[in-house]
Specification:
mainly beta; 55% strand; eight-stranded antiparallel β-sheet; globular; 12 strands; two-stranded antiparallel ribbon
């Protein structure tokens, strides 16, 4: 298999209070540049009679890193727990406190896959992730233009039935995007021209 590209990082707040995961305040977290998923495992070995008798390997969590071209206003509050003052285009103040506690979120993205000339779109949804902002780099402008992009890192863990990630295969990018929006609670509406548009169920 060969993966080409990385599209539509989608984030929504996770609510597990009802026993079944529910997602609200969904939004697209900028445009994806890079992402890595690195599962971590607990391992145990038992040796007997001078040989390996038992071996177990269990999933613990997955390290997730993401770099995007921008960090939307919603991310500061919904993901990182910062205080945002104002709404919409009127947001002027973002306060980062030492006591801020990042929220658990659902996170999804899709990639294009090409196998023997056949193109598919692989969408994935990680059910429970807690992100923290990564290193921030700033540099004065020199002779050449250099872009500095925001990054974040988090850990993905399992929910009540131990599932931590779901992957679905689609024939088109629109189908992959629709599924991610559905998982994030982003409703698809129809504008006056009859064309589909998307907005968060919460009104973001």
């Amino acid at each position: 298999m060969a993966y080409i590209g990385l599209v539509k990082p989608t984030v929504a707040k996770l609510d597990e209070s009802g026993g079944t995961p529910k997602y609200t305040d969904g939004f697209t977290c900028g445009e994806a540049m890079e992402m890595s998923i690195n599962p971590q495992y607990a391992e145990g070995s038992l040796y007997a009679n001078d040989k390996l008798s038992e071996y177990d390997k269990e999933f613990k969590y997955a390290d997730v890193t993401l770099k995007t071209n921008t960090l939307p206003i919603q991310a500061h509050n919904n993901m990182f727990g910062h205080t945002v003052e104002g709404e919409g285009d009127n947001v002027k103040v973002i306060k980062d406190r030492t006591t801020d506690d990042p929220n658990y979120v659902g996170f999804g993205i899709y990639v294009k896959e090409k196998v023997k000339g056949v193109v598919s779109f692989i969408a994935m949804w990680m059910y429970k992730v807690k992100f923290a902002e990564g290193q921030e780099d700033y540099k004065t402008k020199g002779d050449n233009i250099e872009y500095q992009a925001p990054s974040m890192a988090g850990k993905a863990t399992g929910i009540t039935d131990n599932v931590w990630r779901e992957r679905r295969i689609f024939k088109s990018a629109d189908e992959a995007q629709d599924w991610l929006d559905e998982m994030a609670g982003i409703e698809k509406t129809t504008d006056v021209n009859g064309e589909g548009t998307r907005e968060a169920a919460s009104g973001i």
